[in-house]
Task: structure prediction
Amino acid sequence: MRLSNASPTGNPAVRKLLKLLSQRRQTHGPHTNTHPRCFLGLLSCLFLAGLYVGSLYVWRSSSPRDHPSVIKRRCASVLLVSVVSPAVVKTWIHWADVKVSIL
Result:
């Protein structure tokens, strides 16, 4: 069996694919898949994660973390973030115009 030294662009299928890719790059640009909604979704996720973790450390106390008053305050903080989170998600769904259908 003899291997050819011909370039892969000699293949008609490869040439056609390269032509299609270059046409797509010219018409759509290199960054058409990046959309502002994706960035907003990512920022919303990071915001909710930071809000949840930050809510655990909002309260300053000289008591150890196992003290009942510290546990109650942290539970209240997590409850508050759990109530706020669906509102953030609903706002993002509304802004991003996401259609949610069940079945």
User: Anything to note?
Assistant: The longest helix spans residues 68-96.
